[in-house]
Input
Amino acid sequence: MCEMRTARYPDTLTPSDTLHKMATPLLFLYCTMYFIAFGNQFAVAHRVAPVSLIIDTDIGGGGCMDVDDVAAIDIAHSLMDNGECNILAIVQNTYPPKGVGVISVLNHYYHRDYIPIGSYKGKDLSPTPYLPYVDELTANFPSPIKNTTQVPDALHVYRSVLSQQPDHSVTISSIGILTNLEQLLQSPPDEHSALSGYDLISLKVKLLAVMGGKYPSSGTSPECNLCGCAHADSRSAATASRASSYVIEHWPQNVQVLYNGFNVGLEVQSGGVLSSCTNVSNPARAAFINYEGGPNKSRFSWDPLTTLIAVRGVKAGNCTTACHTGSNSVDGTTGNNKWIKGGDDQHQEYLALVDGGKASAAIDALLCQRPKHVRDASPSPPYSIKDYTVGNHTLKLLTNEKTGESVDILADWGGKIGRIQFLGSNNKLRDVIYTRCASLDTCTAADIESNATPGAMLIPWANRIYRGTYTFNNHIEHLTKDNSTASQGFLIQGRPMHVVATTATAQHAQLVLGYEFDGSDDGYPFQIGVNITYTLTSSSLTVQVDALNLMKSTSAPFMSGAHPYFKLMHGGSENNGKVQFDRSCTTWNRQWQTINQVPNGSASLFIGMNGSDTILDPHVECPACGAHWDDGFTSLASKDQCPETEVLIVDGDDTMVLSLGAGYRYVQVYSGNLAEGVAVEPMSSETNAWNSGDGLVVLESGERASFSFRIGLR
Output
């Protein structure tokens, strides 16, 4: 039905290659075109409503290693400025951690930091090199996000965003490997939707535009998006090939698929005009000059052409479609593809070029279009984030302006939670955790510095390391010089953290702080990047810790914890102050402490604090411990069995809640000073885990880990 005759092109092209220098015959197309069935939906003249767009990219490295992803995202923002599309999310489908930083730079340039960003967090891609422009953009252009520790899993973003869209309304521009889409197709129902991934796609997506493959066949030379083999090791290439085969074979047949093949993009060049039509503030301009090794050089336009057509349609990209019946087939081992003609399948087509020059001009016009830089008009959000100075310290105050609920965070003192005020049972604000400051107006620097423990973030270890010594990778490390017990990590020592991002919306206030351990700390010769995200919603503070091993070949121990002292407004009397462990989906072990304040190896099934859960009961199991608690507790259920567990701190008519989410199974309870409150401390590992190994978290080279807990008031 359709035949295509093309000249042969090299499978790999250097950045300096430019099409006008190639002594290559033009692409001859001989096709009989029939725009029946869904064909006309690709050819759009005038859209009534903007296209709801998700971009799935291998930006910066890990897939085809190119700069055209930058152009694709840039023109999507220009199209959004024109009212032609609405970018719902941008997700990265490859490994390099800084790829999302480039996405964030582009979003920030267009004043759209609110667009959700996600990254592929599967364990089946190896660390891969990335292009030099990634470092240039993330280092020299402002953005709230720098690496993948600061963003959620792309699968989470996909399911969350899709579940909120009208049926059959979403277009996906896939301009990288298909790892995210494979995970989405295979995903089960979750908190976002009761539908499986397959059914969610079938219901919500109307078009998938894929830059991938060669048509009608790749022969024995696969295209890099489908094979992932251009710059990756065999493990990552196998992952990419498998994902391509699975997605193309299992994609719902009611959702249209349009393939933009390798040879089409070779005839379309764009981006060189950025050197002259934009200024040095434009990050896309910087990326192209860096990649091409100088100004005024264009690049082949596989990804921007795919994105342009996803929004404006095939004709607007000066293309047409070939073979309105048939389907694509991908070898799951090699990534080679072949178009299978015939059959009744009419939900797939591939592009054929009509006029490469006009297609280039359309892309360049969008790249040169000046950003509106005008935010959508909207009323002031009820949540705010403001700076508040206490002595020589600057606090970040997260506030619900309608209710007065607030949280203050000491960014320059290890991300310590200084104060939480939520509405209590009497509808009046009350302190949830202990703070020495009766109010911010009377607080002093000495109040902050002399009482560092309550509210502190405990990183890279929580609680205690016996004698300050541990062995890791067959090497003895000393956290203390006098063999004294090491307590509570390094952030508690007043380490200044930098502000990564702040967001205040109608739904929440969110602060992201960052810190990098550079390997210079005594006893911790490891390079670990840490981001802490604080999110204030109604009567709730969620804290998420993301850690990334920045070293190329060395593993590292890591532990995350926090030290909130829950305030007992009623003084912890026997009838009012109680700590209760949720047993609805888990049971708990209690780990007794020794005089050295580390576990002695004895554990018992925990029933209750002397049977009543009252924190003031005598410590009958450990007379030497006195009438207070300093004990560890372990949830015996896995996170699959019990995704979130709760510890309740009952104070009169109010109940404070510590919810343990991802990464937290351990709790330390300390009630030695009830004037300050009762400390209920979430921990990712047991006290002294770097010696005992109980719950030990080891981050391999390039590995990420996330931990989250929530403090609420009922």
Confidence is low (pLDDT under 50) at residues 1-47, 374-379, 607-627. The first strand starts at residue 2 and ends at 5. The radius of gyration is 28 Å. Residues 383-713 form a domain with the Beta-galactosidase; Chain A, domain 5 fold (CATH 2.70.98.10).
